[in-house]
Here is the input.
Amino acid sequence: MQNQNAKAAEPGGRPSRSGTRTGRRTLALIVLLFLAPVLLATSLYFGGWRPDGKGLQQGELLQPARPLTNASLRKTDSTEYRLHAVRGFWTFITFSRLPCNDLCQKNLYKMQQVRLAQGKDAGRVQRAFITLGGTDDLHALEAKYPGLAAFTGTPATIQTLAREFTSSHGTPLDGLERVYLVDPNGNLVLSYAPDADASGMRKDLARLLRLSQIG
Here is the structure.
């Protein structure tokens, strides 16, 4: 009995090294179980495996996935919105200057329709519009596209945030009118051209929703 107790604890009553290692392994396992669904979805989807043997329909993969900073934005009621609040959902984000031009309007409509096309999974998807401009225009956009969250911010904030969305095409403030997809962990993963086919976007998103149970 004494020998068994000696193995369980080090002198001074502290846990043994083996006990500490076991605790760390348990904590690591818990973290892995939490992240596994999204990691599995992205690794299978972007690693080449496809349920129907096809590749990405439209999206441009941003590698590595980029964690977005917790930028301070403003909602249409002028209250603060922290960007990390998008976590927990698959989020379409587009940037545009005001007034919202034809490409901007098409993107907002496309995001709306792609979300609705997910059927019972539509609640796992949200849409955001980010711009430099007044709230009057943003109120009108939110009314025209129900469920859209429209945000503005200081020039410095928007410019800094836009740099996080930089791709080979430039930043969103270069008039790209692209649509971006952020995963439930707040990572930027896909970018869509303004002429991206809505059907392809729908298929991309449907596969990700099917593979991931987070968000």
